Amino acid sequence: MSPANRYSSQVVQEYWQYTWDREGVYELASVDDPTYVLGMFPYTSGTLHMGHVRNYAITDAYARYRRMCGDDVLHPMGWDAFGLPAENAAHERYTDPKSWTDACIDQMREEMDTLGFGYDWEREITTCDPDYYRWNQYFFRQFHEEGLVEYKAADVNWCPDCETVLADAQVVESDDHDGVCWRCDTPVGRRELDQWFFSITDYAEELLEGLDDLADWPESVREIQRNWIGRREGATVTFGIADDTDHDEVDVFTTRLDTICGATYLAVSPGHDLARTLAEHDDEVAAYVDDARTDDVAEFSGVETDATAVNPVTGEEVPVYVAAYVLDDVGTGAVMGVPAHNERDHAFATEQGVPIEQVIEPIDETPTDIETEPFTGQGMLTKSGEYDGLASSAARERLLDDTEAAREDVTYRLRDWLISRQRYWGTPIPVVHCEECGPVLVPEDELPVELPEFVQSRGNPLEQAEEFVETTCPDCGEPARRETDTMDTFVDSSWYFLRYLSPDLDSAAFDSEVANETLPVDVYVGGEEHAVLHLLYIRFFTRALADIGELDVREPVQKLLNQGTVLHSGEKMSKTKDNVVSPHEYGAETTRLFVLSAAHPEQDFEWTARDVSSSYDLQQQLFGMVDALTERTAFRESEEPHDEYVAREIDRTVAAATEHYEGFRYHRAVSEIRVLAGLLGQYREFDTPNEAVYRRGLGVLARLIAPITPYLGEEMWNLLRGEGLVAEADWPEPDTDTSRFETERRIVETLRDDVRDITDVASITNPDEIEVVIAPDWKYDAHEIAQAADETDALVGKIMGHDQMQAVGEPAQSYAAELQDRKRELRPVLPGDEEYDLLTRAAWLLRDEFETDVIVRRAETDEDLAAKAKPGKPAIHIS
Ligand code: ANZ
Ligand code: ZN
To answer: Percent of the chain at pLDDT above 90?
Structure first.
């Protein structure tokens, strides 16, 4: 091919983008239960990286494929546009977050266009747009009404110099300190502030149970969510507290009630009410509580108090500690310490010199030295009075029955969702703080609360925006201050898939009727790093929206696909590793083809220049085949057996590629395309091709590759004078029955391998003739009898029971014995006449490869050569 005829997507992309746009190929006029194909929308960082390209190539190929199959396809794109990096960039570049974000969006949209992604841009949404984020504020109000919003104290990072709260991401490492302020390098402390929460824990059980029904989600993601929700069955036990005034009891949660006689202390978290009460008259406790809340204290540090707790089962008194390893918001914020049987309790007891008392003995395992290592397994009770000798589980039941102070209980690891962020570039929380009325919601008709203009400042820019902050109370009209916290950006992404359905709707966040029709999203594609936060939040949000009456659907996503990582030099591509390949380095379409053909979407793969160039070559090959067709190309009208062979291979390819597209196995679809392209090339070289067969083959190739390389698909389709755009063409279908294709292919491949083996072993370089002899009919009958027989049938008797086999005599007897031996490995074969037809059609492949005559025939009676032939494995004679 001369260089002038080389295919380059760069040259043609503008034309096709323009044409797709003009024809509105990707626009969905009305949303009437379309196939909803969605990629996780990107954070607006400025450029697309290889992970984006892979993510969006997967959804784009599927959307295009389904569209060609005749579906209405919704394939939208938008921008996750709020977030801290925009503020950082604004500081570094002396601009403001909005201008920076807008510039990023323009650039990313253009890159997406270059990559040929077919989005319905009429539905583009941008989360930093007030028309979008006003609905976050609306939901905040609705959720509040539903009892799903809480305002409570929480521990936050605090920079004493900037006098501001810092998000975790704003706490960075410096040369000589672990946690310092990103802006002023001051070591960061902790502070307790009132913060806003969404009550996701109300849904813990439902979110957990729902996972069982998500059959089209990767099991790994479901397992991560299960662990994150962390359901624990156990008991809440009330311990009495001696010598304290306000508290006469404390509840602890335990999963191991059977160990209660081994409780040698009770510990509460520094935030526990009891800790606070004790701190009032105990300076040591007060100091520890203070330390634990403002600094990072050692993991198993703690302080002994002068209170003691009474074990409700033994009546024994044990010391009460305040300990940082007991978490505030897990269970009841208090534990019974059983150092002999719990890792963390053991570490604490060792550190604090608390006694360790073994009350469970291992049954099958070798006992450990309990002083140095806890025994955490189930076993048999000892030193537990009347419970001695019981197995752990039986003891738990008995103790629950016997102990009035203990009741069955369930806790979850899942915490409520803290949505307050002390930063500028996010959705303002629609609240006004009034001295008289406390926090008051901004009325619905005053939404959106819009962000004021950005000011360069230390701390939270919103606090400097006096016009924003100073307002009046919606309830009493007195001067009041606006909430300066903004929402976590995960709120924005928790419902964006609903906004795409009615992006311009003014009266509501989305059209409930349309949403009920359309949801769940059919296919959602994104990275596994979102296994918990985002993918749990959308499940929570959907349920919460259902409960406030906006939706009937409770589960947002039908099928979830997590794309694997693109590696380079064995590691994930990243700027810090300096191993990034830009999506444009090798041409956009080559990159697309490569990322889809390198591996299954869920698998990681290594970026290699060699594999990229093979993707490039495939494009050239496909384009070249179509480009070489001219008015003068010679064709044949007559139909030969080998035309039919090729025609059937085209059908087989269509069937296989279609199945691969359905299963997102693009890499295998591309392999099929490669093989067919090779076969068509061989066919054209072998003989003047039949016009209908050859043209159909090229037309099929154009359509099969179009979802993966859309520009190339259009170019091929155009040169072939296909009707309309390939993006809107009908997906090809096989002309013939394809159910036996796998068998056919295996028989042909076996024959070709056998001929190669024989010529190799016998060192035949230029054979005069290859004779292929199909087994006699009775062998097919015998094979059929064998395959239909039961495991236990005696085959020889069964086969020889037929008159026809009796007539054959000894050869039938020994073939039957052979079938008996191989019974387990018998593979499907074709009837004799069909195998003959198949090999007659395929004979040209041998003719072409060995440049000689090939004769295919059926066996004659008593023929020596035919004696070796079996169904599916003809005898071969090479001279
Ligand atoms: C006594 C006990 C004895 C426990 C024993 C375990 C083993 P896991 O272990 O993850 O299943 N726990 C309860 N509330 C806590 C809090 N606020 N902070 C830290 N730990 C807390 O979780 C259940 C166990 O976690 C509970 O059972 C409790 O310790 C601890 F041989 O109680 B267990
Ligand atoms: Zn007020």
So the answer is: 78
**Same domain, residue pair 540 and 449:** no
Q: Domain range holding 379?
A: 232-411
DSSP classification of residue 249? E
| Model pLDDT for residues 132-173, shown as the tens digit of each residue | 999 999 999 999 999 999 999 887 888 888 777 777 767 888
Token representation of residue 417: 């969702």
- The answer to whether residue 594 is domain-embedded is no
- For a substitution probing ligand 1, which of 255, 382, 383 has the most ligand atoms within 8 Å of its CB? 255
Determine the distance separating the centroid of ligand 2 and the alpha carbon of 477, expressed in angstroms: 6
- Calpha distance 341→707 (Å, rounded): 58
Percent helix, strand and coil across the chain, each to the nearest 5: 45, 20, 40
Residue matched to tokens 């960082």: 45
3-state secondary structure 123-159: HCEECCCHHHHHHHHHHHHHHHHCCCEEEEEEEEEEE
Angle at 572 between CA 566 and CA 574, to 5 degrees: 110
**According to the model, what pLDDT value does residue 242 have?**
84
Residue 327 beta carbon below 6 angstroms from any ligand 1 atom: yes
Residues 486 and 501 both lie in one domain: no
What are the helix and strand counts (H, E) for the chain? 29, 33
What would the 3-class secondary structure string for 722-778 be?
A: CCCCHHHCCCCCCCCCCCCHHHHHHHHHHHHHHHHHHHHHCCCCCCCEEEEEECCHH
Domains of the chain: total? 4
743 lies in some domain:
no
351 and 283 in a single domain? The answer is yes
For residue 677, being part of any structural domain is answered with: no
pTM for the full model? 0.90
C-alpha 415 to ligand 1 mean position (Å): 16
